[in-house]
Task: structure prediction
Amino acid sequence: MKPYSVLGKPIRRVDGVEKVTGAAKYTVDVQLPGMLEGRIFRSPHPHAKILNVDVTKARALPGVKAVITAADTLKKPYGNWRRYEHLLDEYPLAWDKVRFIGDEIAAVAAVDEDVAEEALTLIDVEYELLPAVFDPVEAMKDGAPAIHEGATVDHNVSETRHIEYGDVDEAFSRCDRVREDEFTLHPVAHAAMEPHASVATTGFSGRVTIWTSTQVPYYIQILLAGALGLEEGKVRVIRPHVGGAWGGKIEMFKDQYCAARLSQMAGRPVRLEYTREEEFATTRRRTPMKYYLKTGYMKDGRLVAKEARTILDGGAYNGMGPTALYLTGFFQAFPYSIPNYRYNGYHVYTNKSPSSSMRGFGGPQAEFTCDSQLDMIAEDLGMDPAELRLKNSMTPGYEIPGYCKVASCGIQECIERSMESTGWREKRGKMPHGKGIGMGCYGFMSGGVFNWINTPYAFSGAMIRMGVDGFVDVYVGSSEIGQGSDTVMAQIAAEELGVPMDMVRVTSGDTSICPPDLGAWGSRQTLMTGNAVKMAAQDLREQLFEVARGMMMPNIVYAFEAKDGRIFLKERPKRGVDLFEVVKVAVRGQEGQQLIGRGFYTPHGKGMVSPAFSFGAQVSQVEIDLETGKVHMDQVTTAHDCGQVINELGVEGQLEGAFVMGQGYTLAENLVTEEGQVLNPSFVDYKLMRAPDVPVKFESLLVETFEPEGPFGAKEAGEGLTNPNAGCIANAIYDAVGVRIKDMPITPEKILKALEEKKAKEKA
Result:
């Protein structure tokens, strides 16, 4: 790899000091003169027709300044699927019927929280109760209550996805063996520390400005403008610091619409923040799935054919569920070479809170089922599970015709390094009863090629301005949501321009001053926004090179380079000039015009999913308490191929955080509902991983490849890291105690029950 000045180094986050000192400002910290407090009235029923909404008493309550119902909206469906209108099924406020407990019917703005809460008690809604359905399999049956009449491809099936390549049936017919398994994947909450919140104000010109906790400022600008009946330029979205998102803030939510509409009605700023119960029960969930897998293979361990079928519990509305439907099928075939593959997926409406995107976007479900079954196949063949993975893993240049082409791929090196580092061959199947080791592997996209919002702009844009003092301002529409993207953008700009990191400032997430960007999802920002920043820096750098050429008057054949605050001849590094002197000459020579570079990136000809893919292998070592069934995590080792590492510290942080998140998904977290009612909508009852639960030792192995599509050869280091955790832990549990759990989460109770059943079976 090329020696860099700031890339690949453990750089501290540019927003770190603000956050650790408490100086960082979040949405709820925004204070505006005359600000009102907003609250939302929600349905207590899972399924009912709305016959009448009476807000007369609420409007008459002293201190109430505005009340809105569906009658105050355009009654137009909205959502990210502007390109696919048949998937738009949600309205700003329910007007015909409610479809889950918590569905939004009205909203109020009052002088304080107490008055707003009292106003909600004065809203009178007349319902006609309807039968409800809570299980997706039951919802697909004839005679089940229709949740969205006339808006489905089949009864309560909102969308289907099909992927197929090779000759699957013929391939199965020539396999030595075929294995079939079924799995059940559960819903979990995003559980962000910061709940959904918005502060909106309407200016005298009618322009709405909204501060909101979101991953997608530009999406919100477009969607909010459409829902309010405004031109795009009449909505300004500002994203302050975000206290967690993980896919849970990728859409427009009712706090954003209601705060804006109430502000218009009241003529005053309105703040609307969800309670913790609202956050758990009424926002979005990781999609529950029923998974069926059939895999054909040869006696030597070569995978020949696979068929997957999933039924997704989509809840009351589509959200981003149809994308999870597609991606879980796509990633079921990653990161292994499977020449014949068929997938059929069904997204099904139920009367529960909507399911949508969450870190991994269908990947964790796919990898858990895939990795679990691979270990079962290895046992059937008497093979080492890691060797089976090595035998079937993808290689650089691997192509799925019509879907994707993998340029860089370090999965084999990841597997080998994780085996070597953990002593895999000495431990696998050889540890004392109760202790075990397991492996999981993954491949993930570096940004999707999807443009659901149908924007006319580039996927990512960047503008860089350099002042006469040498300070560099980077403007990007991407979203820093805690993952460190602002730091990465600063590093890319600093490296390309040859300036120190402390002279680069990043402004992001303000639609009024930053170029459009599709936001933080699909691990897209390092590659896509990073490319835009690199292009903008190159544009600015070339302007400086032209000025330097005039100052130095070298032979025209000489190329320039910028590094460490100097511009110099690439072949004669000692001959150069101070970069900041060049800046001054450039500004003076243009009569004081600012130096500005622009960059825009959109992937072209990159298949149906992503321009690049990251890869990795993970090994977990566990110890099971045989009396309680509790799983103790001793050590986790992850080898990750993210191309050229931009920020070593950032990648390691992502690896560790992703594992703990996946550990919670695997062993504890479960959003429990009964008859559509969420039963554990609080941090008291919803079980997250705590500090004593995390692994004693984390080990991060960074495997560097070069991705030709990425900036400096970089690719994703965010969501993909979450995908192998569940399968990795499940395989370690099996190695420890010999029981296989296919129904998530893997709780102590399930382990003890499986051990009892195993013991009874052995006695028989």
Q: What stands out?
A: DSSP finds 19 helices and 32 strands in the chain. The chain has a mean pLDDT of 96. The chain has three domains: 16-23+459-601, 31-130+193-245+249-282, 368-443+610-763. The first strand starts at residue 36 and ends at 42.
